[in-house]
Design a protein that fits this description.
Blueprint lengths: L3 H12 L4 E5 L5 H7 L4 H4 E6 L3 H6 L5 H7 L4 H15 L3 E7 L15 E7 L4 E7 L4 H21 L1
Parallel strand pairs: 1-2, 1-3
Antiparallel strand pairs: 3-4, 4-5
Length: 159
């Protein structure tokens, strides 16, 4: 069952006459699944793409390999391009891209520890990136990231 904030976010998106699409790396489809279980899903959810591996980011969403190599697959720069490309694919009014480190072994380092998540959100009135560090198991990190996405989308729609 979706969290309270995901349900509230879905209601807000529907009330604004918007729709939403996702480009998911770190959350691997879980965000789309959570939003699909809300009452408003048929009105708001355009779809989502799981782009967990770098080759999918490159081939399907046209993130230049040079950008991935320069900034790493888990970075705000890559996440921004994912959002922009997904927005074109889905013709969505709201597009969310998410990358990050939910398990050990990615591009983690002292400045970007395990639990670091990058968000890039495009709405009808603005585009913005966000970085946050979450704690817990991979599932807890993913669920916190989904709730944070809902919070960020609502803030951008309500003002």
């Amino acid at each position: 069952m979706p969290s309270k904030i995901v349900i509230e976010c879905s209601k807000t998106i529907a009330a604004k006459g918007c729709n939403i699409a996702f480009a998911e790396s770190a959350t691997a489809g879980r965000m789309s699944a959570e939003f699909s279980m809300t009452k408003e899903s048929g009105k708001i959810l355009r779809g989502g793409i799981v782009c967990y591996d770098g080759c999918v980011k490159e081939t399907l969403l046209h993130v230049p390999k040079s950008i991935i190599e320069k900034y790493t697959p888990e970075s705000l720069e890559v996440t921004q391009i994912l959002a922009q490309q997904a927005s074109k694919l889905f013709y969505s009014k709201i597009t969310v891209a998410i990358t990050g480190l939910t398990t050990p072994g990615g591009s983690e380092n002292k400045e970007k520890p395990l639990g670091t998540i990058f968000f890039y959100i495009i709405t009808p009135t603005k585009e913005f990136g966000h970085r946050e560090i979450f704690k817990g198991s991979p599932e807890k990190i993913v669920l916190q990231a989904i709730d944070k996405t809902a919070e960020l989308v609502m803030e951008s729609l309500i003002g």
